[in-house]
Amino acid sequence: MKAARQLSVAILLLLSATALFFSYHMITDPTGSSLGLPFYLLNGTMFSNYLVVGWVLLFTVGVLAALVVLLIMSKNRYYSFLIMMQGVILAAFVFIQWMLVGETFIVQYIYLILAITLIGLGALQNQRKIVVDSEKEEHHHPQPKSHHHKHRKHK
User: For residue 148, is it within any domain?
Assistant: First the structure.
């Protein structure tokens, strides 16, 4: 299961790094020109520039994915669930973009594939955790020992 955990960390680090990069540019240049984002994409949305989108991206993907990586590394007992939640949040982010903008871009499909992969990896690791926890539970409650001892001396 170490490979699944490592792949999860790699994907989350990639997502965090790209989200931090894009959100930084959206926040420091809300026109979107530094990223080559056309301003017309915001037409018909509730946003007048990319500032709010940048802040949302920063916290929902950039910071949160980095936090999940730290929890995975510390082997927090909920890390598999958090991997799945990051996948769900990322997928929701992409779907909301599609609904608001009305156009799709290759980066959104890549993010959606990574989101689905995270959900699958988290579920896989959660299944493994359930098995390991049940095995530990069995070892903590061994069968009661018999009261008959082989080497007991009888008088």
Answer: no
Residues of the chain with pLDDT under 70: 1, 132-133, 139-155
Q: Where are the alpha helices (DSSP H) in 29-149?
A: 51-57, 64-73, 79-101, 106-140
Number of helices (H) and strands (E), helices first, in the chain? 5, 0
- Per the structure block, which two tokens stand in for 9? 């960390």
Cα 144 to Cα 155: distance, rounded to the nearest angstrom: 26
CB atoms within 10 A of CB 39: 13
- Please write the tens of the pLDDT for every residue from 59-73: 999 999 999 999 999
**39 in a structural domain:** yes
Q: Is residue 153 part of a domain?
A: no
